[in-house]
Amino acid sequence: MDAFLTPDESEALLLSLRISFVAVLGALPFAFCAALLLARTRFFGKTLVDGLIHVPLVLPPVAIGFLLLIVFGTRHGLGAWLFQTFGIRFVFSWTGAALASAIITFPFQVRAIRLSLESIDAGLNAAAETLGARWWDRLLNITLPLALPGIAAGIITAFAASLGEFGAIITFVSNIPGETRTLPLAIYTALQAPGGETEAARLSIMSIVLALIFMTLAEIVQRRARERG
Amino acid sequence: MSVEVFLRHDFPGFALDVSFALPKPGVTALFGVSGSGKTTIVNAIAGTFRPREGRIVIGGRTVLDMRAGVFVPASARRAGYVFQDARLFPHMSVADNIRFGWRRAPEKASEAEIARIVDLLGLEHLLARRPRALSGGEKGRVALARALLSSPQILLLDEPLAALDAQRRAEVLPYLERLRDEAGLPMLYVSHSLEEVARLADDIVVVRDGRVVRQGSVFDVLTGLELGSLAGSSPMGAVIAAKIAAHRDDGLTELSFDGGRLLVPWQEGAAGKALRVRVRAEEIMLALEEPRAISANNVLPAQIVAVDAADPKHADIQLACGNTRFVARITPASCARLGLTAGKPVFAIVKSVTVDAAPGSG
Fold this sequence. Notes:
The structure holds 2 protein chains of 2 kinds. Chain A is built from 10 helices and no strands. Chain A has helices at residues 7-40, 46-58, 61-72, 77-86, 94-118, 122-130, 135-163, 167-172, 183-192, 197-228. The longest helix of chain A has 34 residues, at 7-40. Chain B is α+β, with helices and mostly antiparallel strands. Chain B folds into 2 domains: 3-225, Rossmann fold (3-Layer(aba) Sandwich), CATH 3.40.50.300; 238-357, CATH 2.40.50.100. Chain B has 9 helices and 21 strands. The two termini of chain B are 21 Å apart. Chains A and B meet through helix 6 and helix 7 of A and strand 7 and helix 2 of B.
């Protein structure tokens, strides 16, 4: 890889991949539970919860970054408590970038998983129940495997979207080389410097290639699922 | 092992209020037209529906008693449920499907027992396949095996043949007959087809609008004239328990029943073998004098028990031949012309009969 990329470029690429990986997999259990809640249950205020989950899709990412800064800033409130009690600090750290990415890409995961959960024949659960399977047994052996294509599709689209996150990251955790400077931030930085267009172009092409890879993957997973079902 | 069912529940515009018992191992048909509440009853027994009021006892174990606050969840009911649409797990092979309930059963059937059921239902060559690669009839058989291997204490079959075409139905029915004879379980067979009921069931519970309107042995209930209005479009007919009396040189087999003899096409089996004979109401003609030169092989002297001429399209005549009952369906015009009334002796000309293996005769 060093033959194609400068050390700075490969640092940004690997950081982007690491942040997205942690963001997507960290959010996955919560996304699955949220999707399960929305697909299988009826409760008071469900529309509100549904709306809240989808808010990151329509809110300016910069606003989300700002909100995160307020909540997790180490000077006061939750952020101060986390820092003083556990030494956990999100601001100016790559984990903060992962947290921001996780929140922004959460709706992509929930939506894909929810769609696949809703497409599962409810009769299969009833059948499993009459065959002696209790709820966790059915969740593990019927619902989860049948939702797998949706989970995979959700992971891939969320990952691809996460790679492109800019506004929330730069607002919340700033633009620190090697810590929070992901691909989009590196492109932005290159453009700020005189004569940085070539560098920006190289990074942009890298982003395009990554996006193509993930969208193709998503397509393959979906086609596989269709053929199986 | 007996099963008692009592249920009461109010739906918008429909009230369920039923009480019946399955006295013994064997098939009890739950019969009624669509929308009469059959599936709701079965769901309540399986535990996937919670009625407002009710009590269900399966083999001495109370699985539902709303007054005492007993509600055993479906996963612990041990009711094998065969759904109309099979509901096989699409992400598992046939082998994993049929072992799904077995793995979770408190008492596991032995490998020999599994092999026997796989053989009984003809599934050996299907075990490695996925459900989507199966035909409708094959899916039905896999669903049967899956329910049986969960070591159930009652088998619930919700129109397992309804989704199949005539050919597939004919393919699955013999398996159901073998199951009835070998499973030794109380089976509740939901159906809106009198043909299936007549072929498979020992007892029948007739429901209409959420209520039990008739129950008893198929021999009695199927020849009751009230059934005409309960059966919908299903053809009526009698079911008769018979035995092979003799094989004749002319290729016919003579059967004896409680009230006379019937000549039918050649039947396999030694003299004394029990068979079940179905005679559809449309297949019987009535005559006041004994016809002499006639192509029909069976002319039975009988006595009219009751006449139901309420329907303008046809008249149903209940006949007694010894202790056995038949039903004949003729036109109201013929009924009036012959002056048919209860008590009158007639000759029943049986045009054709259907012969099935009898329960328990193997």
